[in-house]
Design a protein that fits this description.
Blueprint lengths: L2 H4 L9 H26 L4 H12 L6 H7 L4 H13 L3 E6 L2 E9 L1 H21 L5 H22 L3
Antiparallel strand pairs: 1-2
Helix pairs in contact: 3-6, 4-5
Length: 159
């Protein structure tokens, strides 16, 4: 179904790039909503899942600031998410010797069990949602999205 029909518009879009952007935003919102439903079943938010997922696949120690940068969230946001995950005993923050302001963040055994439990459901949902895309289609979408992010960054930064 076309976006114009989904949105019950009186006229078709006259600007193809605007329609493209709205398709991306609507699709991202739908994925996010579906993820929220899944994560809620496990007592998680999307942000908490993203932290657990990032920690599972990190190589070597990662600081709280590095984790926030990797997840593209503010310092206050990552602190809040980590506070909640620490309260559930799913992550631990450890002081870095010689620097009292920096913490390394790690999964606890309990946190690892949680991400191991939810990840198969998460991957199943992704594969079901993208079943109509071939590997080549996926690679094309990735490349196009990378170019769009690059152009958006250039435009935002005055490039």
């Amino acid at each position: 179904m076309s976006l114009a029909a989904e949105l019950n518009l009186d006229r078709p879009f006259s600007d193809l790039r605007h329609e493209t952007l709205l398709n991306i935003v609507l699709t991202a919102n739908l994925f996010s909503g579906a993820g929220a439903v899944l994560f809620r079943r496990f007592g998680l938010t999307e942000a908490q899942f993203n932290v657990l997922f990032a920690l599972k696949y990190k190589k070597g120690p990662i600081t709280q600031a590095g984790l926030g940068k990797r997840l593209v969230v503010t310092r206050a946001s990552i602190t809040s998410v980590l506070d909640k995950l620490e309260g559930k005993e799913w992550v631990v923050r450890e002081n870095v010797s010689g620097n009292r302001r920096i913490y390394h963040v790690s999964l606890t055994a309990k946190g690892r069990r949680m991400i191991e439990e939810i990840e198969p459901f998460y991957r199943q949902r992704i594969h079901a949602a993208l079943v109509d895309l071939s590997d080549k289609d996926c690679m094309n979408v990735i490349r196009v999205m990378e170019r769009m992010r690059m152009r958006t960054t250039e435009t935002r930064d005055g490039g």
